[in-house]
Amino acid sequence: LVQHDQIKDELVKQNAIPLLIRCITETKFDVIKVQQCALEILWAMTFNERAANILKSNENFISHLRSLQMSNETGVIKAAEGIIWKLEQEAHFMSEKAQKEISDSLAHATSLHTYDIMISYSHADKDLCYQIQERLVKDKFRVWLDRDNLYGSQMQEMANAIENSEFVFICMSDTYKQSAYCQSEAHYAYERRCQLIPLKVIEKYRPDGWLGFIISGLLYVDFSKRDFDTDYQKLVTEINRRRDQSPKKQAPHHYISHNTPAFETKQWTVENVVDFLNEMKFDAMIPLCEDLNGRQLYEMYKMCNANSDIMYQSLKGELNELQNKTLPLRVYIRFLDTLKKYVPVTKDTKSMTCNIT
C-alpha cells in the first residue's frame, strides 16, 4: 500500500513517521518482524518530499541508520543503505555525474558505455531475468546484473551500473512495483534520462502508479507468453531500432532524441496524469486535471501557453468554484514550466505503441 502516493501523503498527515522511527530505533522490537518492515516502509516514504525532509532533519535517526549498516541482517542493511542513499547520496552522486559529463569530451563518444545493458528486476522474477541475461551474454552483449556485479555498496553499484549502461531494462511485475529497491533503480534511471526498455515478465500485468508513469509512452517487449526465442528476437530488434534512431555522437546519458520524447504527454492515461500531478506536488491542479488524459492535458497546456493570463484567471475561477480555494500564481507558472519538458518538441513527432507483439 505504501507504494501509492496518496498513502504516503496520508501517513505524513497522520504523523506516522515518528512511530516508524521508534520501531526502528527501540531495541524492544523484533529485528525482522518490526525493525526491517519499518525500514522498508520508510524507504518507500523517501520518495515523498515531505517525508524525506522530515527524515533528513532527524540527525539521531540518520546516525542510527549508519549503525544499522553494520547489522547482521542482510535485509536491514539493504533497507538502511537505501534510505541513506535516497536522503543523502543520490542528489550528490547525480550532481557529480552531471559535472563530469560537462567536462567529458565528445571525442570519447565511441567508448561511453562499459555495459550495453543493465537489468533492473525483482528477485521474485529472477529465473526469467537470468535466462534473458544468459542469452544476451551468449550473443556478446555486455550485461550488468546484480547477481554477478555487486562488490560494495548496493546503491552505489546500482547507480554506477545505470550511469555506464547504454540501455536499462525494466522488468515489470507486481513485485517489481512493490519493491522500494526496484523503485530506486527505475527512478534513478528515469532521472538520468537513460534509454529504458520495459519488459513484461508476468502475464496480464498492467503497470500503474509510479511504474506506469515512468514507462508511459515506451514500447515494451512481452516475455510473459513463454515463447522465449520469439520474444528474445523482438527484444534484439528493439535494441537495434533504438540504436538506429540515436545520434552517432552524443554526450553521456542524453540518449533520448528530442524528436522522439520517451515520455510524450499525449501517450498518458488519466491515471498517468494524476500520477504526474502527485509526483510533482501540483495538488492545486488535481481538481482541474484529474479527469484529463494525456492528449487532453496537452491541449490544455497549448491553451495556457497561447493565452497564459486568460487561462490562469479561468482556472483560478474554476478551482474557487469547485473547492473554494485559490490557485496560487507560482503553482500555475511552475506547472507550465514543468509540463513543458514533457510535451512534443516538433509537430511531426510520432507516438509509440505500447507493445511489441
UniProtKB/TrEMBL annotation:
Domain of life: Eukaryota
InterPro entries recorded: ARM-like, ARM-type_fold, TIR_dom, Toll_tir_struct_dom_sf
Gene3D superfamilies named among the record's database cross-references: Leucine-rich Repeat Variant, Toll/interleukin-1 receptor homology (TIR) domain
UniProt cross-references to Pfam families, sorted A to Z: TIR_2
Domain TIR: 113-239
Biological process terms in GO annotation: signal transduction
Protein name from the UniProt record: TIR domain-containing protein
Species assigned in the record: Didymodactylos carnosus
